[in-house]
Amino acid sequence: MTTISKETVERVANLARLEVSDQEAENFAKQLGNIIHMVEKLDELDTANVEPTSHAIEVSNVLREDKSIAGLPREEVLKNAPDKQDGMFKVPTIMED
To answer: Which GO molecular function annotation, any one, does this entry have (predicted)?
Structure first.
């Protein structure tokens, strides 16, 4: 069984810029070790005759036809704009040259 050490948890936490106490690191190491143990148990299964799948159930997307429709008139869109110029929204400058 693969184990995760407290030191490994602390190293990963440091890389992720997470602060964990000693007790949390010990708990995480134990929990991650249990997860890895469960995943390793899957290796014991005979999957030779099992087809690869991406979903457990059949999935289908319902897509609408891609067709162009007329949008709102420009005047209608801009009527509530706080500031506009040359038929477009005017926004404050956030970057200088």
So the answer is: glutaminyl-tRNA synthase (glutamine-hydrolyzing) activity
Distance from C-alpha of 45 to C-alpha of 62, rounded to nearest angstrom: 35
Nearest CA among 59, 88, 57 for reference residue 74: 88
CATH 1.20.210.10 fits 1-46, yes or no: no
Residue 39, burial from CB neighbour count under 10 angstroms (0-12, 13-18, 19+): exposed
45-59 per-position pLDDT tens digit: 998 998 888 888 888
- Return the domain boundaries, the chain: 1-46
Half-sphere exposure of 5 (CA within 13 A, CB side): 3
Distance of alpha carbon 83 from the chain centroid: 36
Q: Please report the pLDDT score of residue 55 as a whole number.
A: 85
- All residue ranges of the chain with pLDDT < 50 are none
